[in-house]
Design a protein that fits this description.
By secondary structure, the chain is of the alpha+beta class. Helices cover 21% and strands 44% of the residues. It is built from three helices and ten strands. The strands form three sheets. It has a four-stranded mixed beta sheet with strand order 7-4-9-8, with helices on both faces. Strands 1-2-3 form a three-stranded antiparallel beta sheet, with no helix packed on it. A three-stranded antiparallel beta sheet has the order 6-5-10. A hairpin with a 3-residue loop joins strand 1 and strand 2. It is elongated, with a radius of gyration of 18 Å.
């Protein structure tokens, strides 16, 4: 096994409520020095909500960086002081207006491990009760209910292209095939 990199210096270049942008200098096992820019995050959560009619609740919202609409499962960055499960419950309510009687963690992943340390925790939710949504000011969200077959069709047509939603669907589908 190779030696780990040794951090020489670390500086936050920018900070917001969800993540910090770092610049670090490090020493490679060879002795050479390197630079690294990355996003340090508290993590994120995403929820795969299944309604009593066996449809999934997704959101459609405009994504500024891509200049187009995206169909996604509800989720977001972990807010200060919240655990992943508490954040998942808040994001579900905030973006869809639903509260879950049952919520369970089904997996986690890193969406871009060369750029961020973020771990996204995925939760399955059911026994949903509609309470009313409370989106953030920057979020204009339309709710969409889809069957599993419709989700697969939209993925195959690249109409669902959000990487975190694709990973969440893969983890959820895998758990279903295992009988969870």
């Amino acid at each position: 096994m190779t030696e780990k990199y040794k951090t020489v210096s670390s500086k936050i270049l920018f900070s917001n409520p969800y993540w910090d942008y770092y610049f670090e200098k490090y020493i490679l096992p060879s002795g050479n020095e390197g630079d690294y820019h990355y996003v340090k995050s508290r993590g994120a959560t995403m929820v795969v909500p299944l309604s009593s009619s066996n449809t999934f609740i997704l959101t459609r919202q405009y994504r500024y960086l891509n200049q187009r609409f995206s169909i996604e499962f509800p989720g977001g960055g972990i807010k200060q002081g919240l655990t992943p499960i508490d954040n998942a419950k808040e994001e579900l309510l905030e973006e869809t207006g639903y509260s879950a009687g049952y919520i369970k963690k089904i997996g986690e992943f890193n969406p871009f491990n060369g750029v961020t340390n973020e771990i996204c925790s995925i939760f399955a939710a059911k026994d949903l009760t509609l309470l009313g949504s409370k989106p953030e000011e920057s979020e204009e969200i339309e709710l969409i209910e889809l069957t599993g077959k419709e989700i697969i069709e939209l993925i195959s047509r690249n109409e669902i292209w959000d990487g975190m939603t694709l990973a969440a669907w893969a983890l959820f589908s895998n758990k279903q095939s295992e009988g969870d």
